[in-house]
Predict the structure of Polysaccharide deacetylase family protein.
Amino acid sequence: MFIHQIPRIVPTLLPKLIWSNPVGEKNNAVYFTFDDGPTLEITNFVLDCLAQYEAKATFFCIGKNVVANPQIALQIQANGHHIGNHTMNHANAWKYSIDDYQQNYIDCEEVFDQMNIKSVGFRPPYGRINSFIYQNMTLTTPIYMWSFLSGDYNQDLTASSIIQAGIKHIKPGSILVFHDSVKAFPRLKIVLPALLDYCRQQNFKPELL
C-alpha cells in the first residue's frame, strides 16, 4: 500500500525539517509543490493549470533540467511562483558521499545564480536525508519535506485513487508533492486540476512556501 501521508511520529523525530506550514493552518492556505522539472510541455501544463485556478506553487527544480529548459524556469519565476533546489542531478543522499552530495547541491545553486533565480530552499530527492543534511544544511537553508505525497510518479496508482487520497489528507497547512515529469504526467494531468478544484471548493488557498 502506498503511503500518501507521513506518519505523525516522523515530523516529531525530525523537527529541523519542514513538514507543514503552521501559518497555513491559520489562513486556510495549502502549498502545492512540484519536483523534478522543469520539463518541456509538462511544466507548461502545470503553469497553465495553476493560472486557471489563480494558484501559486513552489517548484523544486533539478539543475540539469534548468540548464536544458532555461526559458521554462524563467517562466515559472515570471508567473510569480517560487523555485527551490532539488540538486543538480537528482542526487540520492544514501548513495553519495557527503562531499559529492554537497557539490551536487552547490552546482544547482550556481545554475540558479547564473539565471538570477533565488532559491526558496531545498528538497532532497526521494525525500532521503543523511546526517549532513539534517545537522548542517538545516542551519543555512530551509529543508522542505511534505504532508501529502501524491505518488503521481507511481504507475501502480490510478489518478482516481490519488484524488481520493488527496481529499482525505489535504488540510490547511499541508505541503503537497507532485512531479512535473514525463513519468508522472499520465496521472498528474488528471489529478492536478481535480485537487485544485477540490481546494477551491473548500476555500483552501494554494500559496507560496
Summary: The chain has a mean pLDDT of 97.
